[in-house]
Amino acid sequence: MAYVREFEFFEDEGMVCAEPFGMEGATCGTDIYDAIDMAADWLRIHVLDALARGEAFPQGALGNKPRHGGTVIAVAIEASLGDVPAMTASEAARELGVSTARVSQLVSAGLLESWKVGSTRMVSENSVLARKAEAPKAGRPARETVAA
Fold first, then answer.
1. Separation CA 133–CA 125 (nearest Å)
2. Taking the CB of residue 9, how many other CB atoms lie within 10 A of it?
3. Structural contact between residues 89 and 101, judged by C-beta atoms closer than 8 angstroms
4. Are 26 and 19 in contact (CB under 8 A)?
5. 32-66 pLDDT, tens per residue?
6. I need a surface site. Which of 83, 85, 121, 124 has the fewest CB within 10 A?
7. Per-residue confidence (pLDDT) for residue 136, from 0 to 100
8. What is the rounded average pLDDT of the residues 20-39?
9. 91-123 residues labelled b (16+ CB within 10 A) or e (exposed)
């Protein structure tokens, strides 16, 4: 599917910045062509993140007016759920050192991003890496004691 977002391109401190309309954030490049490439990368990252979370990526309005005295350019990318770096639930279990049942629990709890391709459960690599970085300890969490 094609995703389009307008960006305003303007110079700032010797760089060309690209700020999307209707979303937070921005990116910059060394010149207008580099900034357009960076804007396309920025858009791809945000679209793939939304797809991995099972959310629709909001298409932005067209016909925006510059806010910083720059030029408005529409940037388009082609992306689909198949472009999201992913692994099977079994691979995620091996990577995390847990059972596939535990992966299912983590998915149900919203701690891993996943979707099905046919009958195969896919898990986003980014959510697995984030879970690994948290390095949760094995077993049940310690019960907090309440002072009387």
1. 12
2. 21
3. no
4. yes
5. 999 999 999 999 999 999 998 889 999 889 999 99
6. 85
7. 67
8. 97
9. bbbebbebeeeebeebbeeeebbbbeeeeebbb
Residues 39 and 45 sit within 8 Å (Cβ to Cβ): no
Contact 22, 63 (CB under 8 A): no
d(CA 129, CA 96): 9
What's the chain look like in SS3? Answer: CEEEEEEEEEEECCEEEEEECCCCCCEEECCHHHHHHHHHHHHHHHHHHHHHCCCCCCCCCCCCCCCCCCEEEEEEEECCHHHCCEEEHHHHHHHHCCCHHHHHHHHHCCCCCEEEECCEEEEEHHHHHHHHHHCCCCCCCCCCCCCC
Task: Give the global pTM.
Answer: 0.76
Contact 48, 79 (CB under 8 A): yes
What b-and-e string marks burial along 12-47, b requiring 16 or more CB atoms within 10 Å of the CB? Answer: eeebbbbbbbeeeebbbbeeeeebbebbbebbbebb
